[in-house]
Give the backbone structure.
Amino acid sequence: MNKIDYMKRAIDLADQGKGKVNPNPLVGAVIVKDGKIIGEGYHECFGHAHAEVNAFLNATEDVEGADMYVTLEPCSHYGKTPPCALKIIEKKIKRVFISSLDPNPLVNSRGVALLQSAGIEVESGILENETQKQNEIFFKYIQTKRPYVAIKYAMTLDGKIATSTGDSKWITNPASRAFVHDLRNQYMAIMVGINTVIKDNPRLDTRRNEPSRNPVRFVIDPKLRIPMDSFIVQTAQEQKTYIVTGDDVDHNKMISLKAQGINFIQKNTHPEINLKDLLSDIALLNIDSVLIEGGSYLLAKAIESNIVDKAFVFIAPKIIGGKDALSPIGGQGVSLMKDAFQLESIQLHHFDQDIMVEGYFTKQQGA
């Protein structure tokens, strides 16, 4: 094995922390001595030991003089845990190979400097593109103090999300729907518009074959129309839920909803809720990422507001037809093709016969 192989192993280890460490980053670490791996670890849970410490705890022999491969620069400050850089120095590691430097101002390059000051050889940039994508949520959140935002929707080959009668279950196959639950596990929050709640009565939870975290639910409901018997209201005691509403809604209904466990964010709704301002409110809740799942109006407004970083678009090999069948993105849309919102760095994924397009929004001027 070479440096690339060891770093790939560290990246694979880091992936095991998905859905457990937000708003912290995903980090994996591998200790190598005399050409063999003697210790591995990853950041397993928010507030718990970091990857480097877990690698030391799992070491099968003395680590003095060994090399360490870590996907993110070891921390140099005291947070919920002591600095990992000091632990590496204490354990007398000889060389440290880092994939990405930590963009956190409390750490950036300071961890490297601390290691080098102790005589430890440091090399960075190994598979940096891979680890920056792996931690794209963390990188944006720590640098901008705003949540990373992705949209997800599913449609047929002819661009429909439901028939003209409103029937929409199911467009995609079970494999695609299972991946959506993986996404819900990775993103700290999920957001929908009130029309989606009224029409579909969704659960907006995470259902996987392994222990998972339910996302915090946000419902955009300017006029507080949410039904009291909706699944979201009935489960608000078990899954953190916020309704984003106006400041002139039915006070008695708010009291009843609060009694059910609903939390509120009240915003100016004239002419409509400002989604950029809302993201700032969400960031203050220590939420680093939001997955927007619908409906068509909310998706359109999110795109038009230039708050969306990424898209997951599922395409099923089905054709519905009908001029009155619904499309995934509503709103006014653009008038000219040159003004269309563009995705870049496209990747295609197959889930049995379904195709998923994963891509990043090209940020519009002024975004």
Notes: The two ends are 44 Å apart (CA to CA). The longest strand covers residues 148-156. The chain has a mean pLDDT of 93.
